[in-house]
Predict the structure.
Amino acid sequence: MIKIITLISFLLIAQSASAANQTIEMLNKLGKEHMVYSKKIVKVNIGDTVFWKSKKPGHNVEFIKGGVPEGVGKFRSPLSKDTEYKFEIPGIYAYWCTPHKGMGMIGFVVVDNNKSNLEAIKKIKYQGKSKKIAAELINSL
Ligand SMILES: [Cu+2]
């Protein structure tokens, strides 16, 4: 009986860790990094929403061309505003902050743990410091 309860609680914890909306802060500084999203990779399930909070002015979220699954439209939020996106199509979404992409302000959302568009993600022309950071992120997907 105890074993079953333990198993069930493990399953519930695993479930809540993967199936939930996520909140990411858009920051000017985090530790030694400048111009950065508070979480560079988040994993969500289909139907989950990611919220990006504008903690400091001048940031946004822009899906990178060729960096989203097929069928996903363009997305570019206004600067200095909280924004959100509900993820309905599985795959990897690469995005960056329009003014700071050259400074490495980049992030990934993985929906449904689906990496079917990984090759396309690798082929993106990342700019400036985003290049190195994207390579690290791709390795950790
Ligand atoms: Cu920015």
